[in-house]
UniProtKB/TrEMBL annotation:
Pfam families given in the database record: Pyr_redox_3
Protein's UniProt keywords contain Cytoplasm: no
GO molecular function: flavin adenine dinucleotide binding; monooxygenase activity
Coiled-coil boundaries: none
Signal peptide positions (record): none
UniProt keywords, alphabetically: Oxidoreductase
Superkingdom in the source lineage: Bacteria
Name of this protein: Putative oxidoreductase CzcO
UniProt enzyme class: oxidoreductase
Alphabetized PANTHER family for the sequence: FLAVIN-BINDING MONOOXYGENASE-LIKE PROTEIN (AFU_ORTHOLOGUE AFUA_4G09220), FLAVIN-CONTAINING MONOOXYGENASE
EC number from the UniProt entry: 1.-.-.-
Database matches in NCBIfam families: MSMEG_0569_nitr (TIGR04046)
Length: 429
């Protein structure tokens, strides 16, 4: 991949006031606001726009949040099923229609290889298609570049196939035999269910992810939480912001109209559950003795959401159906801490434990010691550097269709104000 001379004369580069890196919903939302304000900019995308939605979701993928939460700038959901859950192809149609609603200055198949800041405050954006410069850079490349697998995965017997969420499109992608799904965030539980619906033999390693009600007291739980202002709470208002950022999303499903996922009910019906995976060697897989605790903690989260909704209904005097009684339908008889995968018929591992962003190309001092961006609602202390589309950038909805547009408006407003400042004052900011 070519690297261009960052000291090249101005004539050798293409300058824009703003360069946006990434053409997912975050980057395209920023472009929408910049276009509306008449700000000259370019959006650089290493693949095609909305590549992840088109190529990195499994066939049965659907939204977990209701369609009404799709609120991209100037393009709210206008379909006839606001309380439904769009399937993968419908999501692609939605984001493509949003992109078609304005004329973004988009350059696809352009990979950014380096971003550096000169002493005069101008950013150099090196790409495989030439050198750009900008006064402002919005990083909207998302947080799903590197699939996470633990180091001990390399010690597993190679006869047992290993796949990651990104490798899975349909049950046929998994080799015959029992598949151990690792992780109980939204992806893990949904892929476990996808395999079971297809009649496949599957087991599940249960992590500490929380779970949520789906339909509760006559409405979707997310409807109640939105009305209660829960999604308006900012990261700064959280008791422990770093812990909040690190939390796994509550698991539930939008499949077939939406439903809760109670792993105890799956276990009662024959699904083999284990605790968190702690190690692998040859065909041996080890688990922490935390299955019961993880199930209890998930239920605690579930009941906590119900309690919040109950309190709100009582406080507001809302006439709502009575709450369904809660029942613990299964408990493990013992904690299994080690198995021989071959003896258990396990022929594959499906890792569903998340992703990490890749900022190796970012040569700007805006990351902390762990490689996470340092910002306030996407605005960095390094003048002219911004981030969009990250989970909890500002609120729960920041990395979702619900809140990404509001964050994009905030960031682009900041840029527009800087562009309006006198040149000397702006460069000193």
């Amino acid at each position: 991949m070519p690297v261009h001379d960052l000291k090249a004369p101005e004539a050798a580069r293409t300058h824009r006031p703003v360069v946006v890196i990434g053409a997912g919903q975050a980057g395209m939302s920023a472009s929408w606001y910049l276009c509306r304000a008449g700000v000259d900019h370019v959006v650089l995308e290493r693949n095609e726009r909305f590549h992840a939605w088109k190529n990195q979701r499994w066939d049965s993928f659907c939204l977990v949040t209701p369609n009404w939460q799709c609120r991209l700038p100037g393009h709210p959901y206008r379909g006839d099923d606001p309380h439904g859950f769009m399937l993968k192809d419908e999501i692609v149609d939605y984001v493509e229609a949003f992109a078609d609603s304005f004329d973004a200055p988009l350059r696809e198949d352009v990979t950014v290889t380096r971003v550096a800041r000169r002493d005069d405050g101008v950013y150099e954006v090196d790409t495989d298609a030439g050198l750009w410069s900008a006064d402002h850079v919005i990083v909207a490349s998302g947080g799903y570049d590197r699939p996470v697998t633990p180091p001990y995965a390399a010690d597993l017997d190679p006869s047992i196939a290993q796949l990651h969420t990104r490798d899975y499109a349909r049950p046929e992608d998994v080799p015959p035999g029992r598949c151990l799904v690792v992780g109980t965030g939204q992806s893990g539980v949904q892929l476990m269910e996808d395999l079971r619906i297809a009649g496949r033999d599957v087991a599940l390693a249960v992590g500490p992810a929380p779970r949520s009600p789906r339909l509760y007291r006559g409405r979707d739980a997310t409807d109640w939480l939105f009305e209660m202002g829960y999604y308006d709470r900012t990261i700064a208002e959280q008791p422990d912001p770093k812990a909040t950022e690190a939390k796994t999303n509550h698991y539930m499903s939008g499949r077939d109209g939406g439903h809760e996922i109670d792993l105890r009910a799956f276990a009662r019906d024959g699904l083999q559950l284990y605790g968190s995976v702690t190690g692998m060697e040859g065909t041996t897989i080890r688990f922490a003795p935390d299955l019961e605790r993880n199930l209890d903690d998930a239920d605690k989260s579930y009941l906590g959401i119900r309690d919040m909704i109950d309190a709100y209904i009582a406080q507001q005097g809302i006439d709502a159906p009575a709450a369904e009684p809660f029942e613990t339908v299964w408990r493990p008889e013992r904690e299994i801490t080690e198995i021989d995968a071959r003896a258990e018929g396990i022929t594959s591992i499906l890792w569903c434990i998340g992703f990490r962003p890749n900022y190796d190309w970012l040569r700007v001092g805006c990351l902390d010691d762990t490689g996470r961006p340092v910002h306030r609602r996407g605005v960095c202390d390094v003048a002219g550097m911004y981030f969009l589309g990250l989970g909890w950038l500002h609120t729960w909805g920041s990395g979702r269709f619900l809140g990404v547009g509001e964050d994009a408006e905030h960031v682009t407003d900041h840029i527009i104000r800087r562009l309006a400042e006198p040149e000397k004052r702006r460069l000193k900011a």
